[in-house]
Amino acid sequence: MKKKGGEMRNFTPIQNAVIRSDRLDVYQKSCINNILSNEENFKMSLNALANRIPCSKRKATLIIKELEKLNIVIITKAKTLNGDWDSNIYSINLDVLFKHIEVLNYIHNVVHEVHKVENHMPNGSTQDTLQVVHKVPTKNTNKNIKENIYSAFDSYTINEELKITLKDFAEMRKAIKKPLTTKKAIIMLLNKLDKLASSDNEKKLILEQSIFNNWQGVFILKDQNKQLSKHINIDEDGIREF
Question: Domain range holding 159?
Answer without folding.
Answer: 142-241
